[in-house]
Amino acid sequence: MQSALAPEFQIVADAAGETPWRVVAGGATIARFATEALAMACADALESAELEAAMPPPGEGWDMIRSRGFTRHAGPIWHRHDEKGLVFGFRALPKHRNRNGVIHGGMIMTFIDRILGVAITENSAARPHATIQLDTHFVSGAKVGEFVEGRCELVRATKAVAFVSATVTVGERIVAKSQGMWKLREAG
Fold first, then answer.
1. Is 118 exposed, middle or buried (0-12, 13-18, 19+ CB in 10 A)?
2. CA atoms of 67 and 127, how far apart (whole Å)
3. Is the pTM of this model over 0.70?
């Protein structure tokens, strides 16, 4: 599957050589790789970068959430305040899709885990916290190019545990609903 905004990236296998896998766009070889998996990762990264650059978050006021480690690879994830409160979002990119061409459920759950953590941070004086449980129900799929949004609710917080929920949408269409528990730890 390819984006209408990105050129077609093809993976081509040559018969011999130390780098038999090529990434090709517009008939020109962009890069060579020793394995098909590396060539596919390169093509997805290039297509994702072009789509991301061409399609920033819709509307005004979005700020990128700075992340390290695993979550950085899933992003970028954005946030802003609107008339309904805090909203999060990400552009569904080719790197997020599964074999069926829709956004992978693991990406949706990564997004939910991250945004619930940020929402807890805003409501718990930035105390350290960790996911204890996260239940997610997938209602519909998201497609490459769509802007996926999430809203969170702090349902209840005790001294040790936060109970939270999230709804993920594309426009008015619900993609997923989640609820979870986070352990609130003491700082330091």
1. middle
2. 17
3. yes
